[in-house]
Design brief:
The protein has one helix at 218-225; strands at 8-13, 17-22, 28-34, 40-42, 63-64, 70-71, 75-78, 81-84, 93-94, 107-112, 115-122, 133-142, 146-155, 159-160, 164-165, 168-169, 182-185, 187-193, 199-205, 216-217, 230-235, 243-247, 252-258, 262-266, 289-294, 309-310, 316-326. It is mostly beta strands. Strand 3 (28-34) and strand 4 form a beta hairpin.
């Protein structure tokens, strides 16, 4: 088999926002935005060399699918047909299986000076998922200091889909952990999960350390939860934005807008210094936070969750905007 040809691509509005991504997994390798002094800095975790992404890493910056998050017992049923999926987290399927979209070579086409289109066709039974699925993802930057990601997909058979981006954000440019960041989420509920992080089907009220409706410094909350947060929050669709992350020392603020019904929040508490990132930095516990707009985990097994079923007559489409500013 010929070696994978990994290429990098860049979008730049100098002094405003700069994005570098790979055709491998659509991985966002770097995202530069200014601080309150106007100095550009990289606000996502990543690896120094693009070839390093071929080695094991915790989904740094990748496009996640065909189904983001977990599917219980790595199987589901469509029209009385049972599909066995790739098991890559015990008995469960995580982030599309062992060879998910984050490990595929995407076709990349430049649309204009501020946007690229990435395309990939996932064949029938790729990682066990039914249907030939054509996926398109658009990366676009704007003068509003935004990164816009648009996901589109079509299938020739009924299938389940759930896409997101798995970037780890650190508005302090990795000079410290994310514990001094302030997080606010417009959600009154979160998806209850068991010890294996599989949904029970219940939605819990956001209260105590899980309540971010009015904004909280992560350092003040994390000790109450012992390890950290790895939950899907049920977004209030009546609100214009979903979540905000703010780092007082740099003045950087990230606001997320999305058409998705949920936001997976993962505080990077499983990072253990085994990954050596940019400039030789070892990514330790709480080095980055993932804020992943998506549908709910294990949705194929819960009729009360927003559906993730895609049929041939329909086109899946969603949009997420990451907007930065300084305060």
């Amino acid at each position: 088999m010929a070696p994978l040809k990994i290429e990098s691509f860049k979008l730049s509005l100098p002094g405003i926002i700069e994005l570098t991504f790979l055709n491998y997994g659509g991985i966002i390798q770097s995202l530069l935005v200014p601080d309150h002094k106007g100095e550009m800095g990289d606000v996502v975790l990543g690896l120094e060399q693009k070839e390093q992404y071929l080695c094991h890493h915790p989904y740094l910056g990748g496009i996640i699918g065909r189904f983001a998050n977990r599917i219980k017992k790595a199987s589901f049923v469509i029209d009385q047909n049972t599909y066995a999926l790739s098991r890559n987290e015990g008995k469960n399927c995580l982030h599309g299986g062992k060879e998910g979209l984050d490990k595929k070579i995407w076709d990349v086409e430049k649309i204009d000076g501020t946007s690229f289109k990435l395309s990939y066709t996932s064949r029938h039974l790729d990682q066990g998922f039914p249907g030939n699925l054509r996926i398109e993802v658009i990366y676009k930057i704007t003068i509003k200091r935004e990164l816009i990601i648009v996901y589109k997909a079509k299938t020739d058979e009924k299938t389940f889909v759930n896409f997101t981006n798995h970037s780890y954000f650190n508005l302090a440019m990795n000079s410290e952990s994310i514990l001094n960041h302030k997080l606010q989420i417009k959600a009154d509920q979160y998806v209850e999960v068991d010890r294996a992080l599989i949904p029970t089907g219940e939605l819990n009220e956001c209260k105590g350390p899980y309540d971010f409706r009015f904004g909280r410094i992560l350092r003040e909350v994390i000790p109450d939860i012992l390890e950290g947060i790895d939950l899907t929050y049920v977004l209030d669709i009546k609100k214009d934005w979903a979540a905000q992350l703010y780092h007082p020392q740099s003045g950087r603020e990230l606001t997320i807008f999305t058409t998705e019904p949920g936001l997976q929040v993962y505080t990077g508490h499983l990072l253990n210094a085994s990954v050596v990132g940019k400039e030789g930095k070892r990514y330790e516990k709480y080095q980055g936070i993932c804020l992943e707009p998506q549908h709910f985990p294990d949705a194929p097994h819960h009729a009360n969750f927003p559906t993730t079923l895609l049929v041939p007559e329909k086109t899946f489409q969603s949009q997420t905007i990451y907007r930065f500013r300084t305060c």
